[in-house]
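Example record used in the benchmark description.
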Amino acid sequence: MFKWEIHASAMSQATSIDVWNLWKDVETWPLWDHELEWSNINGPFKKGTEGQLKPKGWFVSKFRIISMEEGKSHSDITEMPFTSVIFNHSVTPALNSQVNISHSVQVSGLLAPLLWLTTRFTLKKGLPLAVERLAKIAEEQSPKSLSL
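Model output (structure tokens):
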């Protein structure tokens, strides 16, 4: 089976809950992920819930949350014919009251080589920028920063 993966991470002064609150507000994902035109979810942010998103220059995609650890991590999958795209998101405590925010994309299946050719550069550029923006927005919205 064909498979590839891209990772990105950023450090933030925000709390894990600050990051979690941004993740679970699916409609605002395009604020920190500029590769998205829009996104929505059909119910509560929990395992099994489905949603849709529209990447710039691509078709509307359905996703489903496949795993979740409240306040720490979640994963969602977009299934295509003979191929799946899994986005993993995690936030973990780090030194100096910081958190490490990590996102990864795993693509596997028969169409993975085609997606490697067509989306790899966009993801390699966009994923780190999205994580950095998420970290910055989480810091700006954190009660920690408001009390300084």
